[in-house]
């Protein structure tokens, strides 16, 4: 009973993340970006406004700005607290070992964002990790870099989260 109850609660929490507007929020040094849900049961007056739709900013420019402005940018399935695939969970787990600020966007919430990230990096799979503006790769590459000590060197001048 307890297992099914915790499973239901986690599914409920994860489902709520799909109804937030595209915003940036910080949680223990991690920044998440969420998109707006197009729930047909919600009246237009009560739907959160997607700032991107009204801003004339292309998704390619948003990806470029994300990568430029964030020392570590992770495009993943889910968010760091609730990854939606094992590869995304692995990438988050490895990066959290270094106690550095981590910014992330959930590519499952916006297929157009997913396509824009793929075009930007010229890489077909997710997660995609950018460190100091440079595309590094996915979770397998980050894990390998961690095991060889290369990731520690790459992250050493990034200020630890506070």
- Quaternary: single chain
Radius of gyration: 16 Å
Please report which band the strand proportion falls in: under 5%, 5-15%, 15-25%, 25-35%, 35-45% or over 45%. 15-25%
Mean pLDDT across every amino acid position: 78
- The stretches of 5 or more residues where confidence is low (pLDDT under 50) are 5-29
Q: Total helix count?
A: 6
Shape label: globular
Tell me about the largest β-sheet.
6 strands, mixed
Q: For the largest beta sheet, what order do the strands appear in spatially?
A: 1-2-6-3-7-8
* Terminal CA distance: 38 Å
Instruction: Give the helix/strand class.
Output: alpha/beta
List how many beta strands DSSP finds: 8
* SSE arrangement, N to C: HEEHEEEHEHEEHH
Helix content: 25-40%
Question: Which tags fit this structure?
Answer:
162 residues; 40% helix; 6-stranded mixed sheet; globular; single chain; alpha/beta
SSE layout:
Elements lengths: L1 H15 L7 E4 L2 E4 L25 H11 L2 E5 L1 E2 L2 E2 L2 H11 L5 E5 L4 H11 L6 E4 L2 E4 L1 H10 L1 H6 L7
Parallel strand pairs: 2-6, 3-6
Antiparallel strand pairs: 1-2, 3-7, 4-5, 7-8
Helix pairs in contact: 2-4, 3-5
């Amino acid at each position: 009973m307890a297992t099914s109850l915790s499973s239901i609660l986690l599914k409920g929490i994860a489902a709520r993340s799909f109804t937030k507007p595209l915003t940036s929020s910080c949680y223990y040094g991690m920044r998440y970006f969420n998109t707006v849900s197009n729930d047909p049961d919600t009246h237009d007056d009560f739907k959160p406004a997607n700032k991107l739709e009204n801003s004339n900013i292309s998704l390619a420019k948003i990806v470029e700005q994300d990568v430029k402005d964030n020392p570590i940018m992770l495009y993943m399935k889910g968010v760091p607290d609730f990854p939606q695939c094992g590869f995304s969970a692995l990438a988050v787990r490895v990066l959290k070992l270094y106690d550095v600020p981590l910014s992330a966007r959930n590519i499952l919430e916006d297929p157009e964002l997913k396509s824009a990230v793929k075009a930007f990096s010229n890489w077909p799979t997710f997660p995609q990790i950018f460190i100091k503006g440079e595309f590094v790769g996915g979770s397998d590459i980050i894990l390998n870099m961690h095991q060889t000590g290369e990731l520690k060197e790459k992250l050493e001048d990034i200020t630890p989260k506070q």
